[in-house]
Amino acid sequence: MLSFYLTIEEVLQRNHFSCSEVVAGENGLHRFIKWVHVMEVTEVKSLLRGHELILSTGIGWGGNLDHLRYFVQQLIDIDAAGLCIELGPYMPDIPDEIKGMADAYGFPIIVFHKEVPFIEITQDLHALLVNQHYETISKLENYSQNLQKLMLDVHDVEPILDFLHQHTNVQVVMKLHSGAIYCAPDLPFLSKQNLLRTLDEKDDHPSVIQQSIQVLQKEHARLYVIFPSARYRSELELLLLDRTAVALAQQFLRELYVTEKKQVHETEWMRRWLEQDLTKEDIYYYIGESSSKSKIKGVTIAVCTYEYASEQQDLDLVYLQLLLRNTFEQQGFRLFITVYKNQAVCILLNQREGKTLKKRIMDGFMRFLSNDYKRIPKLAVESIGVGQHVEKLEDVHKSYETAIETLRIQQQLCSEECIHFYEELHMYRIISLVQQHRDLRDVIMEYLAPVLEYDQQFNTKLLDTLKVYLACNGSKKETAKQLFVVRQTLYHRIEKLERLLGSDFMESEKRMAIEFMLKAYDYLFGQRTSEKISYEL
């Protein structure tokens, strides 16, 4: 069998090169040849395309060293395969300067010590190259047919990568968009990480060829073939890489179809679960089939609101599900995730002790938002509401309802925080409940109107002073410190508050009412300053 490419070293074994000698650039004998040309002119840069073997008698430059130097430098610059010179009256020998130049670049210079028929050399090598081209096509067709047969029998990507490795005998690497990496042959973990780091740092490394694997018009993975440093890549290997990338794209598309079909089933099941449309037996049967063997110790719902900056929404959601599942499994949860009412609903089945529940949920989302989330740059998570933890799986609707309530309250407050827990809302939950039965605005104004009107009229900040003073439990020293004012200024403000609210505003029952109204004021208006002012007027 012929090799995938024709090298200088192989050409030297042909009969017409029996009287030849390599006089310079021996470390470049691995260079491969695409074509053979006879050149007798010194200006060749525009005539060649690279990887040509040049035959010459030297008549074009004769004994002019400058012309010869210029000629050889052009061949090196365009990456010609090598130069063959017939020694004779036009070129009796090769100057040492030219030999040193060729050695420095690994550019082979071969001399013929007697007259040789250039026409026969070109016919011989061209016939060899043409035959090799046909053999390449035949090998490619055979590879494609066998690859298609393999695709009928396999259900993952490893056999496909092994198949490419068997036909190239070099290292094959595939990096998924999610960060997972596959190698054929397989490598130890540290070797994989070092290799991945090299690929990331040297995207255009000369010993690496790569191909993007596109699925649904988006890059799903990238395939690499890594050659030894002294090994040139051939046209056939480029074509094998392309065929393999297409096969892998088909395999990924098939996996996505199966995953999507499964998700449709899960989505319908989880929708019925959230709407209390399943019996206790149905729930535990499904959890028993789908979760790990660890005992479930309750369930918590987390609802994510998000926006897309791209049209590839379905595919991005697949990545979202994979990343969240991986993150929360490490935190001791079994995760089910679905899109329900235009929100991503995460059903977190707890498998560890409840004491660390909140911390593990927070750590999971923080890790996702700070690291994994960056892999989906076109997906913008706006807010995450974590509902009440329930012990019984059939009570999951209660956790879902409180998660929705958490998002609603935080949206009302215009909070800049991303993650919110229902159990931390405290007074706001009561305010929300009261608001559903009576308009709180009138009650708020009964208590706070004097302060609000004073701030509006004199452009002061008595309301802020009141909030800090109550939060510091009436400590004038701590209040002055937090407001960055001197004691005398604070005393003056407190006197004004006493005149506006009454000297008894710090007494227990009235203080509790004022604190409640301050919370209610923040709840109703949040940061919407213009709405507050217009209402107060």
Automatic annotation (TrEMBL):
<feature type="domain" description="CdaR GGDEF-like">
    <location>
        <begin position="314"/>
        <end position="409"/>
    </location>
</feature>
<feature type="domain" description="Purine catabolism PurC-like">
    <location>
        <begin position="10"/>
        <end position="128"/>
    </location>
</feature>
<feature type="domain" description="PucR C-terminal helix-turn-helix">
    <location>
        <begin position="462"/>
        <end position="520"/>
    </location>
</feature>
<dbReference type="Pfam" id="PF07905">
    <property type="entry name" value="PucR"/>
</dbReference>
<dbReference type="Pfam" id="PF17853">
    <property type="entry name" value="GGDEF_2"/>
</dbReference>
<dbReference type="InterPro" id="IPR051448">
    <property type="entry name" value="CdaR-like_regulators"/>
</dbReference>
<dbReference type="InterPro" id="IPR012914">
    <property type="entry name" value="PucR_dom"/>
</dbReference>
<dbReference type="Pfam" id="PF13556">
    <property type="entry name" value="HTH_30"/>
</dbReference>
<dbReference type="InterPro" id="IPR025736">
    <property type="entry name" value="PucR_C-HTH_dom"/>
</dbReference>
<comment type="similarity">
    <text>Belongs to the CdaR family.</text>
</comment>
<dbReference type="InterPro" id="IPR042070">
    <property type="entry name" value="PucR_C-HTH_sf"/>
</dbReference>
<protein>
    <recommendedName>
        <fullName>PucR family transcriptional regulator</fullName>
    </recommendedName>
</protein>
<dbReference type="InterPro" id="IPR041522">
    <property type="entry name" value="CdaR_GGDEF"/>
</dbReference>
